Amino acid sequence: MGHILLRHRDEGLENLHQLDVYRANGGYDALKKVLDEYSKDEVITIIRDSNLRGRGGAGFPAGLKWGFIPKVDGDKYVVINTDESETGTFKDRELVERNPHQVIEGALIAAYAIGAKQIYNYFRGEFMSAAFNFEEALQECYAAGLIGENIMGSDFSCDFSCHYGAGAYICGEETALLNSLQGDLGQPWSKPPFPAVEGLYSKPTVVNNTETLANVPPIIMNGADWYKSMGTERSAGIKIVCLSGHINKPGNYEVEMGTSYRDILFDEKYGGGIPNGKKFKALLPSGGSGPVIVDDALDAPMTYEGLTEHGSVMGSASLIVMDETVDMVWAAMKMIHFFRHESCGKCTPCREGVFWMKIVIDRIYNGIGTEKDIKTLESVANQIQGNTLCALGEFAINPALATIRHFPEEYRAKIK
Amino acid sequence: MSDLVTLTIDGTELSVPKGTRVADAAKSVGIDIPVFCHHPKLEPVGACRMCLVEIGMPMRDRATGEPMLNEDGSPKINFGRGLQTSCTAVVGEGMVVHTDTEAVTDVRGTLLEFQLVNHPLDCPICDKGGECPLQNLVMDHGKMESRVYFEDKRRSDKHVSLGDLIFLDRERCIQCARCIRFQDEVADDRVLQFHNRGVNLEIVTMSDPGFDSYWSGNTTDICPVGALTTADFRFGARPWEMTPSASICSQCAVGCNMTVNTRREARSGGKPVIKRILPRQNEAVNELWLCDKGRFTHDYVASPERLTSPMMRKDGELVAVSWDEALNAAAEGLQAASSVAGLAGQRLSNEDYFMLQKLFRKGLKSGNLDVNNRQIGGGDVVAQVGIAAGSDLQQLGKGDAILVVASDLHEEAPLWWLRVKQAADRGAALVVINGRSTRLSSHATHNLQADSGDIVATVRQLVSMAKVETDGTGALDAAAETLITANNLVAFYGYEGLSYEETESLAKALANLLLIQMDGEPHVGRMNNGLIPVWPYANTQGAWDMGIHPALLPSYKAAKMTGMDAVAMFAGAADGSLDALYVVGADPIGDGWMADRGKLGLLIVQELFMTKTAVTADIIFPAQSWAERDGTFTNGERRVQRYYPAIRPAGDSRPDWQILSQLGERVGAGKAETVTSLVFRSLTKAARQYKGMDYRSLGQVEAQWPVVGGDDRYYGGNAFANTAGLGKQWAAVAESKAVKQFEMDDAVSSREDGLLLINAASLYTAGTLIDKSAVLAPRMAKITLTINPVDATAYEDGDTLMVRTDRVTVQATAVVSDDVMVGTAVLRGVKAMNGTAVARLSKIKE
Amino acid sequence: MIAEKYAKEIEGIIARYPSKKSAVLPLMHLAQREYGYTSESAMKEVASILDLDPTQVLSLAGFYTMFYEEPVGKYVLEICNDLACALRGADEFVDMACKKLDITPEETTDDGLFTIKTVMCLGACDRAPMLQCNMSFEENLNEEKFDALLGRLRAEATAGTPSFSVAEKMASYAVKDGA
Ligand SMILES: Cc1cc2nc3c(=O)[nH]c(=O)nc-3n(C[C@H](O)[C@H](O)[C@H](O)COP(=O)(O)O)c2cc1C
Ligand code: SF4
Ligand code: FES
Fold first, then answer.
1. For residue B1, what pLDDT band results from cuts at 50, 70 and 90?
2. Are residues C22 and C86 in the same domain?
3. CATH number of the domain that C94 lies in?
4. What is the pLDDT of residue B96?
5. Which of chain C's residues have a Cβ under 8 Å away from the Cβ of A246?
6. Would you call B48 and A348 a contact, using CB atoms and an 8 Å cutoff?
7. Which of A228, A258, A291 is the last residue of a domain?
8. What is the DSSP secondary-structure string of B758-820?
9. Which of C42, C31, C37 is nearest to C68 (CA)?
10. Position C167 in a domain
11. What does the pLDDT read at residue A137?
12. By CA distance, what is B147's nearest residue in A?
């Protein structure tokens, strides 16, 4: 079977980013079908029934989110989240670069479903050159009447523009993203209000991850049941997995939900094992933000719930693999550095707490820490937990807590 | 009432308006939830997390929607996961809040520890020490031992000048963004922002000049730590060393309530000196705010140039004499004079005005009384249809309308600008009519620019459109429709570009607008409706009320004979037809109204400073400044407000009313008064509108929201809670009986050919008092002349021009901009004068 | 002045949004491309085009890492040494690059050509070590490829051929959008 999302990898579809190639292979049929056959509510029902959940990390059911948009007239927006700044994540980049029309089509269907007349794709600023194909695709669509006034001759009209950030991980958080898009400081706001009620320019807004939307056209074409037939009951369908670090075949893979982490790392179809005959040591299953797991968790299925009992999460499924040579205190320090660098500073526990964690882990890593410092690191992380304005602070504590939990001896070996 | 929501906080049941935030609701029943970033006047952001509490909502059965009950019949409450920020959480019916559980207490300790990670711990030398919520909270909840290695703390600049007025200590800043949000949401001067991110977040400004806002001082009141301080107070004193005295600002017609903080100092020989001025809460007047002019223009009080002793001219020289000698000589001189006249400034107290008119009318039998510079007419119209007693601009919003004509509120009466802008933000329709665009224009629903010469005609046209139901589509028609159909309508009028006569017509025209009945009700006589004059000075209203007018006695009774007005006095001095002139708190020579003392036989001046007029006087009486005495001012909304002495008098100076009354005694105007409150009592007998007021009732207060105070954990800022009086608005005639439409004269436009010069107000324009303020000196308005590009063919931006009119000759920097209409030129930074003049320009060669 | 030079592009960018302020990041990208960094005058220019106070622009310049508030070299080599890249030798790559150019991170070579910065994850972890230069990615790097890159950039600088500008190309899309 060919790919569902990474279709450009299938034979003969290398130029899928071009409109003619995309259309020749069924492109925009889903949009046509929606415009011809379905009411807005029917589209939302299909997506809800398909059990498609958000691929940006939080896993919120997409159909439910669309359903929250008030069914009243007025400005509404669809915003695509292509901020993709989590360490180890590079799946959305491949989609917008190689299969942009599928994202555009998915977003147009979302816009139709909620009654939006404007779509923005928010790219992280560093993706500007990766976005050329996407920009070209938009131009082609405008020319072909797929975007703009009376799309495909229907009475649905919708504009579509790209917007570029300028280097800030926090702008992946949906409210920070919307602030950034408004030209305000890219800091998140305290919810409620949720974007579905008061989002971009204070209007109802759906924010979806790029990959989430890319799933929409095939679901429309093949039906909710088809999508649900893949994966598990609560985690339906397929997921792009990003493999990086100590792995033989780094890159993106389209994987059916429920596949075990062990298969993803070691199966020749996917990661193909650890290079240089080294032994597996630890896996970050969700970039820098998810708690690290060790060998005993590898047989867990990759689903939204699969790692719960191992104290971790699937998140965006960006798998950073570490072999036996990796110093886990060093790895934790790198990740804490990342979060310290990316904390927006708005809320006190994240701003001050993560800064503090960084000073303490630096002391430990540099050999001037004490037993007390390990305790401080742990307790500061615990003090941040549950008290921050957005999830960044919650992410930031994982590197410390999970590495202390799994590798206490490595910390102890470093102290005075 | 369905607009109230009932909830329980720590076992106390309370009902509060829908939409109230939990932290505010708690405070209203005395439960003090600590806050840093939340301020009751700003949108909540939930950033500092200090206010985390347990919040639960009653559970409902999914299927039936019925509330779920515990076994004992009490509702089941779902507290969800974790704590919630009570500053952002909105109250809900049946909500249960716990602010005193172990989880809440713990998290407070946690957050304070975070707050102190990078804090410099310099309380002993911090200006906020003693009134700092962070310090107070650490005392309550803090862990007393620091786990942070001191050398690991982030170091930063401690003396950052954000401009001339405000300093920032970056190490003390806790990134609550109150200052930024105040500037964005309240002041609309977005000149403060965060720079960088995370732990490096810091406050910056890039405006030119730095922190360019008339509101900057307020940020230092609401900053919850010692990060922001004012240039005048910085390192000046510790909060607990100071004595607060309630006062009223004497700088404009708004009448902001303020508190003067004083401390005894060696440099003043152990006498109290003014250390700083802070807002005093009066929600109906200035809420919790002050403009920087009001806050910083106090240096003059302590100026070494103050007059300290009576003086008389002997052998051509002014020499110090005793009070008795000076008073006796003045009494003799005035009685001997063939004709006398009295001229007063517009910053005196009601008591002063009353005694002045008594001295003249009763003692000297003269009705020659006027204020120095009569710029706005219509005080008599205001007495009929002025904004009704009990009004509060804060209550205007959706469905209401405000009209502002011929005034630049931002420059002339900043607090009104703020409150009008906020009403517009809340949805009130705003109609602005002026000869050029002002700061208010951008907030206007209808911005009608009219040539200055046509403003009165435009308003009259608007009124006639409002009277009939037209189906016209013009901008004026639409504005008329908006105004007349509003629930509440308030009209402000000023004098920019208008002659005195034109302002009189304007007042009447606006009165007629307000008198038009919609559904049988005119827009007068009821709360939040009526006319507000943008008087040029703090107590112009009082001067009207007390009969400092050639034709009006106190309480607007017509005088039997009309006396000389100011213009006649100036002419009389020049040609010798006036013999003696008595000047109180005014400088007609310095202001250019009189070239010199002319042929006056006697010139008496009652003043704070040796003004240009005083130098030429025969007798000078040193007066006390407003900070040294008590009295009352009446603001443009006719609110009579009491101020109190803060410091000891300079030298031998006396309050103006006392000097006038002692002089009065000598010329047969009755026994001299000894106490201010008794002067007020007698003035209420003459000025009918003040009936029923006395110093005690003016000093009364009621509970106000939000609750503010110094050592509050729920920190509303440094502004002082008002314990000294909210004042009282006197009722306009329309509140008790119907007022008829005003007759209007045929419009006369006095336009001459040539470039019309409009003198536009600037907040910081040079003047006797403001000139003494050291901190405001760098901010004083530059003199500029703005001309439309069409008229500026011979001039360029930045050229130095010589501007000549009948009265003034000044050098101004040219600004070429289409903000002004063709044919007009706007002169800024020159002391206000009314009307338009024809300007003759010439370029000065470099 | 970008207001004149890119008048059409700027108009196109502003037209994309219901609020002018939204155009601030795109215009800052454009200004940085024009002046090499977000200089004070560049920020004031952007502010005046969008009716903002310059402080608002300054604030964003400080918040986002892609804006340089100080002058930088003609080519800024932004090397990712975040965890995933570091596992594949990014830290060693940074050391090598620095030694080769005889500078430390954040410094600029004496000839003003190169600045090295280390940055957080750029979304190319599977092709580490990698760097971003003038908004284009250079991936799967090693010393040899790095030398080639330096050679190419030096040659380009000597020849004076204008380097390909991503920001300009992006701005041009705004015109074509016809929004
Ligand atoms: C700090 C932080 C960073 C995030 N970064 C991203 C991101 O880069 N891309 C993304 O799609 N979602 C990101 N998210 C999640 C978004 O807030 C949001 O949940 C998501 O875009 C919703 O789309 P989905 O439901 O389709 O997943 C981030 C969240 C947080 C708290
Ligand atoms: S300066 Fe004061 S008000 Fe402004 S952010 Fe810092 S602590 Fe808050
Ligand atoms: S960790 Fe370097 S690109 Fe991701």
1. very low
2. no
3. 3.40.30.10
4. 97
5. 87-88
6. yes
7. A228
8. EEE--TT---TTGGG-TTTGGGPPPPEEEE-TTT-TT--TT-EEEEE-SS-EEEEEEEE-TTB
9. C37
10. no
11. 97
12. A376
Substitution site in B42, B158, B176, B191 for ligand 2 pocket (most atoms within 8 Å of beta carbon): B176
Whether B794 and chain A come into contact, CB under 8 Å, resolves to: no
Tell me which of A81, A103, A286 to substitute to probe ligand 1's pocket, judged by most ligand atoms within 8 Å of the beta carbon.
Answer: A81
Nearest CA to ligand 2 atom 4: B179
Residue A354 in contact with partner chain B when CB distance is under 8 A: yes
Residue with more model confidence, A22 or B121: A22
Domain assignment of residue A392, yes or no:
yes
Pair A213, A250 in one domain: no
- Residues in chain A within 8 Å Cβ distance of C163: none
The ligand minimizing its distance to the Cα of B182 is 2
Cβ-defined contact of B204 to C63 (cutoff 8 Å): no
pLDDT on residue A325: 97
Q: Give this complex's ipTM.
A: 0.95
The predicted structure's pLDDT at residue B749: 56
Number of alpha carbons in the 13 Å side-chain half-sphere of residue B673? 25
pLDDT band for position C168 (cuts 50, 70, 90)? confident
Residue B696 CB burial class (10 angstroms; 0-12, 13-18, ≥19): exposed
Q: CA-CA distance, B509 to B511, in Å (whole number)?
A: 5
Residues of B whose CB is below 8 A from C54: 206-207
Instruction: Look at residues A176, A208, A228 and tell me which one is the last residue of a structural domain.
Output: A228
- Phi/psi for B492 (5° steps) reads -100, 140
pLDDT at B753: 62
CB of B554 closer than 8 Å to CB of B361: no
Domain count, chain C: 2
Calculate how close chain B gets to A193, using CA atoms only, in Å.
10
Of the pLDDT bands very low, low, confident and very high (cuts 50, 70, 90), residue B373 is confident
CA of B178 to the centre of ligand 2 (A): 6
Residues A33 and A66 in one domain: yes
Residue A2: inside a domain, yes or no?
no
C104 C-alpha to ligand 3 centroid (Å): 20
CATH number of the domain encompassing residue A298: 3.10.20.600
Domain span at C64: 2-69
Q: Which domain holds residue A31?
A: 7-228
Q: Tell me the mean pLDDT per 10 residues along chain A, length 416.
A: 94 96 98 98 98 96 97 96 97 98 98 98 96 96 97 97 97 98 97 96 98 98 98 96 98 98 97 97 96 97 97 97 98 98 97 97 96 96 96 96 97 92
Shared domain for A301 and A344, answered yes or no, is no
The residue to mutate among A52, A164, A169, A173, having the most atoms of ligand 1 within 8 angstroms of its beta carbon, is A173
Q: What is the pLDDT of residues C114-140, one digit of tens each?
A: 999 999 999 999 999 999 998 899 999
Is C124 close to ligand 3, i.e. is its CB under 6 Å away? Answer: yes
Note if the pTM is more than 0.90. yes
Chains B and C: how many Cβ contacts under 8 Å? 40
User: Quick one: closest CA in A to B184, which residue?
Assistant: A184
Query: Which structural domains are found in chain B, ordered by start?
Result: 4-115 (3.10.20.740), 153-302 (3.30.70.20), 311-375+539-698 (3.40.50.740), 379-533 (3.40.228.10), 755-843 (2.40.40.20)
What's the rounded Cα separation, in Å, for the pair B304 and A399?
66
Percentage of chain B beyond pLDDT 70 is 96
How far is ligand 1, taken at its centre, from the CA of residue A83, in Å?
A: 8
> How many folded domains does chain A comprise?
3
Together in a domain, C64 and C134: no
Q: Are residues A50 and A86 in the same domain?
A: yes
d(CA B204, CA C63): 12
Provide the greatest CA pair distance for chain C: 49
Residue nearest to atom 25 of ligand 1 (CA): A54
Which numbered atom of ligand 1 lies nearest the CA of A211? 26
> Tokens in use for B247?
């006062």
Alpha-helical runs (H) found in B224-280: none
Q: In whole angstroms, what is the distance from residue B631 CA to residue B539 CA?
A: 11
A42-81 per-residue burial string, b: 16 or more CB within 10 A, e: under 16: ebbbbbbbbbbbbbbbebebbbebbbebeeeeeebbbbbb
How many residues are listed for chain A in this entry?
416
Find the mean pLDDT for residues B375-390: 96
